[in-house]
Amino acid sequence: xxxxxxxxxxxxxxxxxxxxxxxxxxxxxxxxxxxxxxxxxxxxxxxxxxxxxxxxxxxxxxxxxxxxxxxxxxxxxxxxxxxxxxxxxxxxxxxxxxxxxxxxxxxxxxxxxxxxxxxxxxxxxxxxxxxxxxxxxxxxxxxxxxxxxxxxxxxxxxxxxxxxxxxxxxxxxxxxxxxxxxxxxxxxxxxxxxxxxxxxxxxxxxxxxxxxxxxxxxxxxxxxxxxxxxxxxxxxxxxxxxxxxxxxxxxxxxxxxxxxxxxxxxxxxxxxxxxxxxxxxxxxxxxxxxxxxxxxxxxxxxxxxxxxxxxxxxxxxxxxxxxxxxxxxxxxxxxxxxxxxxxxxxxxxxxxxxxxxxxxxxxxxxxxxxxxxxxxxxxxxxxxxxxxxxxxxxxxxxxxxxxxxxxxxxx
Length: 411
What we know:
CATH superfamily of the largest domain: ATP-grasp fold, B domain
CATH architecture of the largest domain: 2-Layer Sandwich
Helix content: 25-40%
Distance between the termini: 47 Å
Radius of gyration: 21 Å
CATH topology of the largest domain: D-amino Acid Aminotransferase, Chain A, domain 1
Number of domains: 3
Number of strands: 18
Strand order of the largest sheet: 13-12-9-10-11-14-17-16
Largest sheet: 8 strands, antiparallel
């Protein structure tokens, strides 16, 4: 039996199609009101998927009835939950020590710095005085972020120590850290390792401000780097060093983010023990020749997978890029058509969809209303097509704008 923890964001993924050998042997825990895909023998729900104890209690109850041999989790929110359950049930996979290192931004940077990787100067935050003290010794911009956060939620960029006072409520309720602001282009590296052997490592560069672009309602995306780009090789090598620095299992998927400065220095932003979110899986599918979530699901479940085909595909894959349109502060009045020459165009909204108030304020970097993929063998042509399609899709949306009394998490 396979126990699958399904965040509402991952509802509807075709687990039964990915795992045909396990037909009739899938059980799930998810949130009330969430519709999961077909093929589950039992689905247990909890009122609030943010409630760790409720999710764990439901999983334990399911496990008593079905005795799972694998606990599968694809979402960031489930990484530590799944690790705890594996420990309780004596199952293989990412354990609690590794899960903590990949979730806690202070702990991961401690490991990385001890191994000689370049990380931003940082300190854990107990209250706002820790932020002001840090800023007194590190002049310039700083970033305050939740130690276990994802999707750029709860992130604040500060230019002046006086701004720290406004974070008192945040840092008193959620563990935070503060670090120096690193100027550079944001890159991500998506890695799959099985039994200690590298299967794939895809380095990509975000456009614009990357995951912080949604603060200004700007569309953004990323595209994979050419294999002969010297930055690609350096990023992959740095990611391997990072994985070895953390208490990583031999079989692992990871999504690492790095800054590359104008001087060419590679600086760690953070790393997660999961597949990248948003449209990254769709982009990687064109590079790997398989949906990375399907790849990882089969590997986690110990099922046969043609890893050599994935390795070969990575050496011959086309250039691929994703782009996404974030929400604005208001209500959707008009939807765009699919731009020509794109793949995997997805609309995640509808006419009348209201993104005002707290929903807008708490938006994540992966909360795209429309996403799509562009491929082209020519790098310049790919970039041009990406920009052109972004203009078309952005213009296709119509908005009734709300009063912007509630802005993004960081200004």
